[in-house]
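Hey, weird one. I pasted the Glycine/betaine ABC transporter substrate-binding protein sequence into the form twice and got a warning about non-standard characters only the second time. First submission, copied straight from the form history:
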Amino acid sequence: MRMRARHISILAVAAIALTACGDSGSSDSGGGTGSGGTASGDACAPVPGDQLVPLEDDKGLQPAENVIPTANAAYASANPTALDALDTVSAVLTTEDLIGLNSAVDNERRSVADVAAEYVTENDLGSGVTGSGAVTVGAASFTESQILAAVYAGALNAAGFTATVQTVGAREGYLPALQRGEFQLFPEYVGTLTEYLEGNPDTAVATADLQATLVELTTLGQAAGLSFGTPADAVDANAFAITTTLQDALGGITTLSELAEACSDGSLVLGGTPECETRPLCQVGLEQTYGLSFASVESLELGPNINNAVKQGVVSLGLSNSTDPAFAQ
């Protein structure tokens, strides 16, 4: 579901940091877009810190991006216990679990196979389900998808299937292959898949309401030859993070609404992708849904680039993913 970005160089961050040290309220900071309001104070100016914390999207700006087992419908009809096995994963998988799993691979440099196998064993996944036969679980090329596919395969193997994982690239290529039955199962995300299947960029059918979005997804999936298991509590959606140092300075805030209240002076500096300025789930949504205003906006790559900019005090608030390993404690 997410994009993976290259690491920002130390020199690049330093250059951004130097240009970000202009006068308060400057609309041109470190190559940012310059959009946003003019700061009249510095309550929410960038504050360096070692630990990032995502703020709760308490007004439901982001659609429901719960992880959901997705299957070729013909395969699922002939092998109904395959989705039952994957539902044992959904029954325990949380956002915090995904953060930890991603961190184990990306930060601790452990192998996907070892991390997934440990999770399957610790949670007794696949237990109580019986199946058989060969099955292939597809995985996109980013860490989280690889881990989820390996966990799915482990649960299936524990249930009696003979499961393997195949890296299948981006959605534009793998979804038609799944529909054709070239592989049979895939770990998807509710909101993103719903919007992709609906296909109209001018309409939004996925919302923060998981159950309503599932109704849309089920209907679209049936027409596309797809079946679904039970969604997990685990969510990988856009998230917006600050340093715990800034969090403490603002009285321990935990939500985007509290951030908007504390930062009404317009001193926030936002770090986002180049597309963030015009995206309804990014800067536009933050302004319209939460009433946030920004002194400036820095255009950076998603992942370590933005995370480092927040930690080093270049930006106050950074776009991230809710399962980013940077949130591991």
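That's the output from the first submission. The warning seems to come from a hidden character in my clipboard, not from the data itself. The first helix runs from residue 10 to 19.
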